[in-house]
Amino acid sequence: MKQFLSFAFLLMLLAACGSSKNYLERSDEDKALADAVRKINRTASDDDAKEAIPILYKNIVKVHTARVKSIENGSDLARWDKIINEYSDLQNAYDLIINSSAAFKLVTPENFGSQLLEARQSAAAAYYAAGQNFLEKQGRQNAKTAYNYFKKSGKYVNGFKDVQAKMDVAFNNAIVDVVINAVQDDRYFYNSGWGSSYDYSNDYFQRSLVRDLSYNNNNSNYAARFYSDWQAQRENINPDWTVDLRLRNIDLPQPYQNTYRQTRSADVQTGTDTSGKPIYTKVYATVNITRMSFTARADMEVFIRDLESNKIISNRSFRDDYRWQEERGSYTGDSRALNSQDWAIVNNRGNMYTPRRDEVLAELYRKLYPQVLNNIKYAVDW
Prior knowledge:
This protein is α/β, with parallel strands linked by helices. It has twelve helices and seven strands. α3 packs antiparallel against α4 and α9 runs parallel beside α12.
């Protein structure tokens, strides 16, 4: 019996050591400390957490302060982000200990709040200076870089100097006037004025892009203004970019006719037996179906160019298709075998309506439109 108790005690001791060792062997010591503190907050007498917390905290301070010293020797601007991250981790460890009465009995943590505040001030000043340097340079990319640096400066110290005013200047310097030209279609409907009663004529496609991009600009703060070619001429706008749209590889096939048959069957109640149970009889019918169908396709080429530098901003091609089909039919046999889909086909009498070419092209426009819109938005986004 004594041997059994000794063996049980040994197992408990090994389990306790193993559990504490588990905290100390984790690669992420910051998370291990957080887990240990949470454990001791729930169970103040937990020996595993009590043993691990002082060791973990000492290692965390040693590792992060050493990283700060190493990073401080660098000259790149991004070093401030890394330094702030290190001090943030140190301060998080301090907060964990100071806000836990059980952990505070084990460790006297060091407050790194002043170092973190100083690092934020230095980072804000460094990013502000870098932003000012890029603000004095020409070009949209330099303005964009300046804007982002000023934004980061204000992130580290709210209201740092005149950072918001500088961001506004950088944003205005980055604004491009973009002219969107009407869709060119070399094959079927080029400048023919087709489809004036439909939403997506060549001219309407252009106007819709200008309208929707301008709306998104007002709500999403894109550094761009959008015009149709005739608006730019009327308002005497000298555009920075142009967007050329061309419809290519248009395939508007004739409808294909296919006739086929399908056999239907169903169990229908035809009476009852002497005990009142229903009697079912299987009935059959044949549905004769004529299907008219086609699949139309088209590509839309979107070419965005910087007029001053003659640089290609984007050159993409988008493809989509429009599938149409209509069915009508008749049946032979027992009508009770037909399902609801069969009845819809059988009741579809009269001449089939085949979409006109302008209607098909309008459908293709509708499907291509969001792809073109998003491509232009992506090009001007920064």
